[in-house]
Hints:
Distance between the termini: 83 Å
Strand order of the largest sheet: 2-5-6-9-1-10-11-12-13
Strand content: 15-25%
Order of helices and strands: HEHEEEEEEEEHEEHEEEHHHHHHHHHHHH
Number of strands: 14
Bound molecules: adenosine-5'-diphosphate, magnesium ion, zinc ion
Shape: elongated
Radius of gyration: 30 Å
Number of helices: 16
Largest sheet: 9 strands, mixed
Amino acid sequence: MTAYATDDLLDYDEAMERFDPVLGLEVHVELSTASKMFCSCSTNSDAEPNTNVCPVCLGLPGSLPAINGKAVESAIRIGLALNCEIAEWSRMSRKNYFYPDMTKDYQISQYDEPICHDGYVDLEVDGQTYHVEVERAHMEEDAGKSLHVGGSDGRIQGAQYSLLDYNRAGVPLIEIVTKPVRGLGAKAPEVARAYMAHLRDVMLALGVSEARMERGNLRCDANVSLMPKGSDVLGTRTETKNVNSLRSVEGALRYEICRQAAVLASGGSVRQQTRMWQESGEYTIAGRDKSDAEDYRYFPEPDLVPVAPSREWVEELRATLPELPAVKRSRLKQQWGFDDVEMSAIVNAGALDLIEQTTEAGCAPASARKWWLTELSRRANEAGVELAEVGMSPAQVAQLQNLVDDGTLTDKLARQVIDGVTAGEGDPQQVVDARGLAVVSDDAALGTAVDDAIAANPDVAERIRGGKVQAAGALIGQVMKAMKGQADAKRVRELILEKLS
Length: 501
Ligand code: ADP
Ligand code: MG
Ligand code: ZN
């Protein structure tokens, strides 16, 4: 296997001059229910291999599945959050195929009767709104995990043997499929990324999934095809499988667009195939060729009754949906008085909830924003951790700003307090006390330092006596330096002018 891309690529801008990309995003969401989709086994993913299994999820003959009510509820709530219709009657189907990680030789999924259908998502990218239509969101079960041993980088090719872990077999999944998304132009990869980020935020707001892409809780199969400019006929698509970071979704689509454009521009035709994103080299490689009429011999699952959620239940779930990310964002934007640029900086930094909690703890929004987006973001970056794990809580940030507001701290001293808090030395007040960081405004202490500064700078003192009040700045600087930045600058100024008048 090569470690670099061998495909011809057309420059992205040139590709965009000649072609319009069309996207199709299939996203799998792993639900965080306590038990699996059709049995009572735990979904805990940290368990020893093959310990969370039973006759149902191992597909033993004679075992019977029973549907997980909580998973159905989550499916409906997800559908509602994506503006879908909720089917009055829906059914599970068997999708037949063989793979060693699938115990039954079929996956219980949904085919022509998904529980949620015909929804949409509106996304904002660079100040423009993009409308993405959701074709369906259906329920299914996950497969087990294969571990190929002895080959290169865990691939089955060249492996000596494979290990199978069925703990994940039967874990509930919701698959969300878009209609073909046209009209995105050069923004297509960014819109796909924004769509994934939106789904992640929705799942977190609903509390139905951990939604950690790096753990595979949320994974995307990214389809893309190109149409020559002016054409209205969909081109042949490729499907890059299991892309599991926001950055990779954008990167994989960009790469595929450049690759397909080069194929088409040289008179070739795109092969309909699955592809795999190579994280290391940032390119895709071919998987298997795939036709639309792939025959899974779907048929209705005879061991499960249809899912027919009552309208009362659906309305009850609709009425109790939490505030969704887009609504929350515009509410807070209004409330805080920030503009679009400020808000997107906050969202991109993952600081929205932290700033909200900081303001709830009594801090002004602008100050909360300042600490989280400057000092704390910088420290989180340096430490390579999420902002929420930087070692300072929203309540502590609010306490810090309080100490600045009441004159105990200058901004400069506050930064030293942050050092202490993030080093685990306690709350801001404790750090101030322990490190002796408070501003000194006591006249006795300041007076001595002012006298020293005057004595050391007779020429400056003379100018101030002669009416050059601005010259006081130089003396204030001296006092500050002598007192390690802890002098109350306003009081120092007053004392200097009193003494020299
Ligand atoms: P499959 O079973 O092959 O994954 P699906 O119908 O589940 O097929 O998903 C295909 C995805 O690709 C859907 O989001 C669909 O809207 C989208 N799609 C279909 N045709 C095209 C095309 N020509 N170009 C881009 N996307 C497409
Ligand atoms: Mg697919
Ligand atoms: Zn089980």
